[in-house]
Amino acid sequence: MTPLDQIATFSEGLAMIVIETPKNTPNKLKFEPELGAFILSKVLPVGSVFPFDFGFVPGTLAEDGDPLDALVLMDAPVYPGCIVPSRMVGVLVCEQRKKPGKKAERNDRLIAVADAAKPYAEVRTIRDISPSLLEAIEAFFIDYNRAAGHEFRVLRRSGSGAARRAIARAVVPAGAPA
Question: Which of 14, 77, 132, 141 is most exposed, with the fewest beta carbons within 10 Å of its own?
């Protein structure tokens, strides 16, 4: 059996996003490769839920030491561990400071669309997402981090090309430790 963190990053041009946390849940789950299982990482404040499925791009390593994060737009949630073939439509270029006085580090959020999601079939780039939905997504990440005691800033929004380049930069070479 292939561990979830060792699945191919792309297949037939689509990013293979591993879902950790389903849409509409306050429970943040995280895949732990050493255990081969999902653990409860944190619980959002009462009334807060993930607006879409949230997961990671396998075979990548971001500046924060974890695989690249991805928010996947689709109609209904899937289960943790589900692999969702997705189109990369954009990236929220972000910076996070986990403790006051500490150095801020990049912690971008990729925005993807499940290839099978019919309501989002026309979404090809971040410009195809309504401004109000993008603002709500950004507010979620800012509020989520504030509740955890972290400072989180969205520096800019970039399109699908920037998202693909971010993945290319973060791909871990075969055989290298992730």
Answer: 132
